[in-house]
Amino acid sequence: MTSPGWERIRLGDQECLRVVFPEPLEGHLRAYFVLKGPWTAGTCGNPEEILKRSRDLRSSEPDLPERWIAPVQRHGIDILQGDRASVLPLRPDGDGVFLKTPGTGLLLRYADCVPVLLAKRLPRPWALGLHAGYAGVTEDLVGAGFERLFGHEGQDEEDLWAWIGPGIGKCCYVRDEDDPGTARGKRRLPPACWDEEEGGKVRFDLKGALQLQLQRHVPEERIFDCALCTAHEDAHCLSYRRGDQEDRMALLAWIHRCIPPFQATSPAFEGKKKAEGTPSP
Questions:
Q1: Which of these, 18, 9, 1, lies nearest to 253 by C-alpha position?
Q2: What pLDDT sits at residue 178?
Q3: Torsion angle (degrees, nearest 10) of CA 94, 97, 98, 102
Q4: Residue 4, CB-side half-sphere exposure with 13 Å CA sphere
Q5: Residues 222, 220: Cα–Cα separation, whole Å
Q6: CA angle centred on 225, ends 169 and 215, rounded to 5°
Q7: So what's the pLDDT on residue 154?
Q8: pTM of the model
Q9: Which residue blocks in 215-264 are alpha helix, DSSP H?
Q10: Which residues of 2-14 are buried (b: 16+ CB within 10 A; e: fewer)?
Q11: Mean pLDDT score of the chain
Q12: For residues 125-134, b (16+ Cβ closer than 10 Å) or e, as one string?
């Protein structure tokens, strides 16, 4: 289940995907995606309960933040910018969190919607976590996030990277054609990202649409999709469409305080570079 840019690990009884950062970011950022398991079961997506159960993470990450931003997710395009007015127990609305200083982490929750993480090292490290469901993809949450944070000039592609986590795949995401939201998606997304089917159904490729949206800002070779469909992977993932109405998986990310890099980072990322024929530094 490990894909380039991601590494499957186990912390106690909990299965996670660890984001494998490239060398320019390796010593600056940490991120984990918490899959279906004891840290999420019965929490109803409560971020404070998820954090309480994730104590095993501190054994491998002693610099785990004490402060966390976990917005109430509304399937919109609002981005929180990491200030103290957004820290738990406060929970303003938002579907993205921007971090640029150590000491505070982001926690976003998912059960079919797609996790997206963007990161850059220069001129100083930052990370942007996004909760991209159907509404967020059709509203171009990625583009809105870049514009709100950086203005129309955007960001230089140099040293910019992106990760796409577990989310519902094209194989499983079908909507009714007579739903007004479906018509909106057909208008706003490229034809390559949806197919009309018999029986008044339309199949959407949310991850494919996110890839295209991200490629306006990030080189394609620096976008890493973990290739997990939440609706297919019952043993590992929660899926709202499959009946998981309350519990949620979680993305945790933070800028750390110059702790030496996790030694397992390099081999997983080297595999990506070798597969692409990119020389190691």
A1: 18
A2: 95
A3: 140
A4: 14
A5: 5
A6: 100
A7: 55
A8: 0.89
A9: none
A10: ebbbbbbeebeeb
A11: 89
A12: bbbbbbbbbb
Beta-carbon contacts of residue 173 (< 8 Å; ≥ 6 apart): 112, 134, 203, 204, 205, 206, 231, 241
Q: What Å distances lie between residue 5 and 175, 196, 267, CA to CA?
A: 31, 33, 10
Read off the pLDDT of residues 159-185 as tens digits, 9 standing for 90 and up: 899 999 999 999 999 999 999 999 999
Residue with tokens 């997206």: 116
Pair 145, 76: CB distance under 8 Å? no
CA-CA distance, 245 to 238, in Å (whole number)? 9
Token pair for residue 73? 């997710």
Distance CA 3, CA 195 (A): 27
- The Cβ of residue 201 has, within 10 Å, a number of other Cβ atoms equal to 13
CA distances, 29 to each of 32, 54, 102, 143, 254 (Å): 11, 18, 9, 23, 6
Q: How confident is the model at residue 124 (pLDDT cuts 50, 70, 90)?
A: confident
Q: What is the pLDDT of residue 149?
A: 83
Reduce the DSSP state of residue 138 to 3 states and report it: helix
pLDDT of residue 153: 54
Asked whether the beta carbons of 45 and 87 are under 8 A apart, the reply is: no
What DSSP element (H or E) covers 196? strand 194-197
Cβ proximity of 52 and 34 under 8 Å: no
pLDDT of residue 276: 44
pLDDT at 268: 43
**Using CA atoms in the order 269, 274, 275, 276, what is the torsion angle rounded to 10 degrees?**
100
